[in-house]
Design goal:
Layout (H helix, E strand, L loop, with lengths): L2 H12 L6 H25 L7 H21 L3 H12 L10 H18 L3 H20 L7 E7 L4 H12 L2 E9 L4 E8 L3 H9 L4 E7 L8
Helix pairs in contact: 2-3, 2-5, 2-6, 3-5, 5-6, 7-8
Length: 223
C-alpha cells in the first residue's frame, strides 16, 4: 500500500457516511440545554445596557444550527468541502456595537462546534469557565465614571463663579462644552465629587444661574 492509499484510507475512515439518530438527538439535546443557558445568561449580563431580544434568540438558534452543520460535515468529505465553499461567500453586514455581544456570539458558535463534535464535557467546562470569568471580573471595583454637570446661566460671567464653587466641592472638573447665545449660555462640565448635593445646591444659588443638572452615566471611564 502506497502513501497515497494510506492517506485516502485515513480520510475515508474519518467520513464514514453514517449518522446515528441517537447521537444526533444527544448532540441536539445538550446543545439546546447550553443554548438555553446562554439565553438566560445574556439577559442577566445585559441588565445594565441595551438588551436586544432578537439578538438573544439568534444566539440560541445559532448554536443549534452550528451543531447541525458539524454533524453533517462529519458524514461526507464532499459535503464538508461544499459547506466550506458555501459559507465562505456569506457576508454579514450587521455591526456588533457591544464587545460583550461579540463574546456571546463567538461563545454560541463555539458551543455548536464543540457539541457537534461530541465533546460535551469541553462545552460544559468552557461555558462554566467563561461564566466564572465574567462574574468575577464584573465584581472587581473600578474607578467611578465622572458626573456630567449642565449649567444654564444668563451670562458668561457666571462661569468664574461656577469654577470657584467646583474648586471647593469637586476633586476634579473640566469644561466639556460651552454654548452661548444672546440671552443665555449653556456650560457642560465633567466632574468628580463626593459632595453631589452640596455642589448642586451651591451652583444653583449663584446669581445668574437659571438651572443646573447633574447626570450620572455608565459610559467609559478615563483615568
Amino acid at each position: 500500500m502506497g502513501f497515497r492509499d494510506v492517506i485516502k484510507q485515513t480520510v475515508l475512515e474519518l467520513y464514514n457516511g453514517e449518522v446515528d439518530v441517537k447521537q444526533i438527538l444527544v448532540v441536539m439535546g445538550v446543545t439546546l440545554l447550553l443554548s438555553f443557558y446562554l439565553f438566560v445568561l445574556y439577559r442577566i449580563v445585559t441588565r445594565k445596557t441595551f438588551y436586544s431580544k432578537s439578538f438573544n434568540l439568534s444566539l440560541a438558534v445559532l448554536a443549534v444550527i452550528t451543531a447541525g452543520i458539524i454533524i453533517t460535515i462529519q458524514t461526507s468529505i464532499v459535503i464538508s468541502l461544499g459547506m466550506v465553499g458555501a459559507l465562505s461567500i456569506v457576508r454579514f453586514r450587521t455591526a456588533v456595537k457591544e464587545p460583550m455581544d461579540l463574546i456571546f456570539l463567538f461563545w454560541s458558535i463555539s458551543v455548536g462546534i464543540i457539541c457537534g463534535a461530541g465533546l460535551f464535557e469541553v462545552a460544559i467546562i468552557v461555558s462554566a469557565a467563561a461564566t466564572l470569568v465574567i462574574f468575577v471580573l464584573d465584581q472587581i471595583p473600578l474607578a467611578r465614571a465622572p458626573l456630567i454637570l449642565v449649567v444654564n446661566a444668563d451670562k458668561y460671567e457666571c462661569k468664574a463663579k461656577v469654577d470657584m464653587v467646583l474648586k471647593e466641592t469637586c476633586k476634579y472638573f473640566r469644561v466639556k462644552s460651552r454654548n452661548m447665545s444672546e440671552n443665555h449660555v449653556d456650560m457642560v462640565y465633567e466632574i468628580r465629587t463626593a459632595k453631589e448635593d452640596e455642589c448642586l445646591t451651591a451652583v444653583r444659588t449663584i446669581d445668574g444661574v437659571r438651572a443646573v443638572s447633574m447626570i450620572d452615566h455608565d459610559g467609559e471611564t478615563t483615568f
